[in-house]
């Protein structure tokens, strides 16, 4: 039953990410944490997202924008290595509360009276990458943070999704190597992550189909509501 739940939620999470550009991992992480434990959830999520981001990138590979991606990776990879290393020494209960708080803050930030994209150009992508990489190593995913900077480039929708997905793919591959070094990715975790990742491939394709048929604003509102509920649960129930 746990594996059935993982498959369904992973599929839905990837559908969300492909539809609105981010948010899927934030929905998947609380469910995953309740099944495999928070300490292993972040590394397992990282493995699963390799498949999800690879499929999103592949569907739009012809419009990938290399220059901003390389700037972004220049900032994100060193910080992801640092924060992934720090993660190995953190206590599980504090990680659970940290991730829950992060989920809630992401939604709050999006509704503040501030711009929902950061326009700093290609050089600013280094800063965006550094911030995203550091948060991603600790929380498993910082897609909304990276999205702010990629949206600021004013790319066409397909180019935005493909470029963001490719940068995330390289980031998650790097984190997986670091987590493995500290024995945070077990054989079971690798299998579970791969299992969920296969579901995410189908979800990525479904998300592209749904985006043209439903209101993006209403869909995003439901997603944010779920993120807040799960985040609060992680902060105060765990």
Q: Mind explaining what this structure looks like?
A:
With 238 residues, this protein is an all-alpha fold. It is 82% helix and 0% strand. The protein is built from 10 helices and no strands. The longest helix is centred in the C-terminal third of the chain and has 25 residues, at 157-181. The protein starts with a helix and ends with a helix.
Strand content: under 5%
What portion of residues is helical?
Answer: over 70%
Helical stretch tally? 10
- Structural category is mainly alpha
Q: Nearest-angstrom radius of gyration?
A: 16 Å
The total of beta strands comes to 0
Rounded to the nearest angstrom, the distance between the terminal CA atoms is: 22 Å
Shape from CA axes?
A: globular
Q: What order do the SSEs take from the amino end to the carboxyl end, as H and E?
A: HHHHHHHHHH
Mean pLDDT rating: 79
The residue ranges in which pLDDT falls below 50 over 5 or more consecutive positions are none
Main beta sheet:
none
